Amino acid sequence: MLTTELFKKIRQIEIRTRHLVNDSFAGEYHSAFKGRGMEFDEVRPYQAGDEIRTIDWNVTARMGDPYIKRYVEERELTVLFLVDASGSKSFGSVERYKRDLAAELTAVLAFSATNNNDKVGLLIFTDQIELFIPPRKGRTHVLRIVRELLAFEPKHLGTDIQLALDTANRILKRRAILFLVSDLVAEPTSYQQSLAITNRRHDLIAVEITDPMEQEISSVGLVAFEDAETGQLLWVDTASKRWRSQYQEANHQRTNQKERLFLRAGVDRIVLQTGEDYVKPLTRFFQKRNQRQTKGR
């Protein structure tokens, strides 16, 4: 149900993201994500300097003068957001929850896509597939996606990234752009194979949503930590230098493991933090992809 509070939240995100898309990301998105190929547009008379291989010999024979085939980029793409709604996404130690950042980031990318006449869809997952909205075009459709991301209450709390990737592979019959929006707290080896398979079939980008407290915990004494996905409660003495050192080392190892995993799979990864502006890392991502594609031409 669309409450007044939810409506205001959706409207705020729409205003913020529309400004970003129009001023910063529309051109970046178009450059970063190319169409599926080239499609025939028209024939026109040959002009000096035209590529001889583009001559349409059938039309040339009928008209008595040389004509060439003109092609344009087949622009329309399908974009599907795989958004993690597990219990850990309701965590946030500064400014906003991870799920709120995920919603706004998805809105920016979705509006960028729809401005390019691309189709946009949504798959919300936990350790089950919670919701699927088939890809469609248009601003109204994007606003529905934003509404679902802000208001949706999952029935489960766990995380199964492999299930989300495998489901996307089964649903999508043609190559698409997939954004995996998650805090990636699941064990990397649990989705390693599906990650590589999905990136071969589609253009997969991982958007990792993090929080500063997940990187480093300050010395604040005895603290109870609850696992948002299992409900398990753990008391920790954060004043212990040894414990904080072990925590940081374990986090460092997990980070390195994920970096190696995504590198091997050839999957681009954007890391965003709840307490920081997402514009700069997103801009760097677009520019990096554009440079890579320019070099590959």
How does this structure look, described?
By secondary structure, this protein is α/β, with parallel strands linked by helices. It contains nine helices and ten strands. The strands form three sheets. A six-stranded mixed β-sheet has the order 5-4-3-6-7-10, with helices on both faces. The relative contact order is 0.14.
**Low-confidence parts, pLDDT < 50 over ≥5 residues?**
none
Mean pLDDT: 84
Instruction: Note the run of SSEs as H and E.
Output: HEHEEHEEHHEHEHEEHEH
Radius of gyration: 23 Å
Strand order of the largest sheet: 5-4-3-6-7-10
Overall SS class: alpha/beta
Ends: how far apart? 49 Å
- The beta-strand count equals 10
SS summary, helix count: 9
Q: Beta-sheet strand percentage?
A: 15-25%
Largest sheet: 6 strands, mixed
Give the helix proportion (percent range): 40-55%
Task: Characterize the overall form.
Answer: elongated
Feature tags:
single chain, 297 residues, alpha/beta, 6-stranded mixed beta sheet, two-stranded antiparallel sheet, 10 strands, elongated
Furnish the topology, listing elements before pairings.
Layout: H1 4-32, E1 37-45, H2 57-63, E2 67-74, E3 78-84, H3 98-115, E4 119-125, E5 129-136, H4 139-151, H5 161-171, E6 177-182, H6 192-201, E7 203-210, H7 212-215, E8 222-226, E9 233-237, H8 241-265, E10 268-273, H9 279-296
Parallel strand pairs: 3-4, 3-6, 6-7, 7-10
Antiparallel strand pairs: 1-2, 4-5, 8-9
Helix pairs in contact: 1-3, 1-4, 1-9, 3-4, 5-6, 6-8
